[in-house]
Amino acid sequence: MSEHTLNSLGFAKPEGETRVVVAMSGGVDSSVCAALLARQGYDVVGVTLQLYDHGAAVKSAKSCCAGQDIYDARRVSEMVGFPHYVLDYETNFRESVIEDFADTYLKGSTPIPCVRCNQTVKFRDLLDVAKDLGADCMATGHYIQRVEGPDGPELHRAFDGGKDQSYFLFATTHAQLDFLRFPLGHLDKNETRRLATEMGLNVASKPDSQDICFVPEGRYTDVIEKIRPHAAQPGDIVDQNGTVLGRHRGVMYYTVGQRRGLGLGENTGTDPLFVVSLDADKGQVIVGPRDALLRDTIYLNDVNWIGPGTLAEANGTAIRVKVRSTRPPEAATLHIDDGQVRVQLAQPDMGISPGQACAFYADRDDAQRTLGGGWITQTA
């Protein structure tokens, strides 16, 4: 390979001399990612993280990172022919993700543990492991694109909009983006499964993970009760004027936008009531009509900016934002007021909850470039 010719991962050396650590969850995406790179001749090393005691999780075929997944990742590495390591990261995962998950609910907010996992265990701790293993880069099976821009690598939404994972990767930093690669970003999921079948991978027909990996039965409150026993405090369900309508057994059992399970009976009028906010300090669940869920101002902290220039220079910039992973980007303006980051939506939106993320995108018709994002602290 000539001095100026770059391989597909952007390095000016042969594939066989380019070491790639691939984060392998045991699912079809990361398995295809590793197998493709190995087939292209790269020096691939697979790494799977054991993140928690998987004894209970193996009962669910929809959860990720369980015992079956570790076995599946190992089988792929054996079939394709590259080394594979399993690392015990239970303590890191518990401290950085599971405990944060429980505490966020107890504060009356709604967490996104998958983002915290990417932000801490995967893109901080595992990245360090990859460097210790002498890797030139680390690859993952995420559906997102890394594009070389005039000022360095940029993060762009995936070709397959239905599988795009940019919302969960808003916290990726410039330094991490320099080291990361996303080989599946230009594919759709059907093509990924076709490749898995073509390469004879044992995970070709494996279903996608749907639940939070450490909540395999979908009951997040079971996890909180185990991590923080007796932390839930009963309190009042009140309307927006403070009138007591009923009692609840703990704010952690409720989320903004919730309608069912309020237990208020038939004494609240004809219009259905929704949880419009949670006040953990007062122990109150505040309910109101559907229109009361509308918000157009979002306040953020721990903001990550990977757009052009600096965050301060972006003050007043028109952007697009996503406040749910499944929603399309919507028009907004970014404001920085004495260090406080605020997003002003062009149109009010419903069900925006503290604890969730607000991801930023370039204000173009395709809103392809991801500019970063932050954690929602409050709305108005």
What does this structure look like?
- The protein is of the alpha/beta class and 380 residues long.
- It has 7 helices and 17 strands.
- The strands form 3 sheets. The chain has a 6-stranded antiparallel beta barrel. A 5-stranded parallel β-sheet has the order 3-2-1-4-7, sandwiched between helices.
- The longest helix is centred in the first third of the chain and has 20 residues, at 113-132.
- The model is unreliable at 54-65 (pLDDT under 50).
Radius of gyration: 22 Å
The biggest beta sheet, please? 6 strands, antiparallel, barrel
Instruction: Report the β-strand fraction as a percent range.
Output: 25-35%
Number of helices: 7
The span between the termini is 57 Å
Oligomer: single chain
The overall pLDDT average reads: 92
Q: Which percent range fits the helix content?
A: 10-25%
N-to-C SSE series?
EHEHEHHEEEHEHHEEEEEEEEEE
User: What overall geometry do the principal axes of the alpha carbons give?
Assistant: globular
Unreliable residue stretches: 54-65
Secondary structural class: alpha/beta
Strand order of the largest sheet: 12-15-14-13-16-17
Based on DSSP secondary structure assignment, what is the total number of beta strands? 17
Please supply descriptive tags for the structure shown above.
globular; 17 strands; single chain; six-stranded antiparallel beta barrel; alpha/beta; about 375 residues; five-stranded parallel beta sheet
